[in-house]
Amino acid sequence: MTAAFSAVGIVAADMGASLEFYRRIGVDIPDGSDGLPHVEAKLPGGLRIMWDTEETVKSFAPDWQRAPGGGVALAFDCGSAEGVDRLYAELTAVGYTGHREPWNAVWGQRYAVILDPDGNWVDLFAPLE
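-> structure tokens emitted (129 positions)
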């Protein structure tokens, strides 16, 4: 048997706030999901993002605690350098925390890092050319 990567899970302190952030990035999240304890959205290519509330996770892992600093980042291709700049500006304008303003990375991409409502790094990128 070979395991197939299928989904990324996010534990949300505030489900509605987390879903609103990812909707602004462009993830197609079902309407009416904000009050649910578990939500899934399928991404292009078949990968899924899944959200669970802290309460949901604690229902099967009572000792669960949020790890400081996380260590996982999600990355979104914005299509163009201008797209990176535009999305970063839109997200910070409505109050999301910018972690690193857009820059031209040495590896040939326009790159920026913003934090989702739970402090997870979200990378915005696009080729420079």
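The chain has a mean pLDDT of 91.
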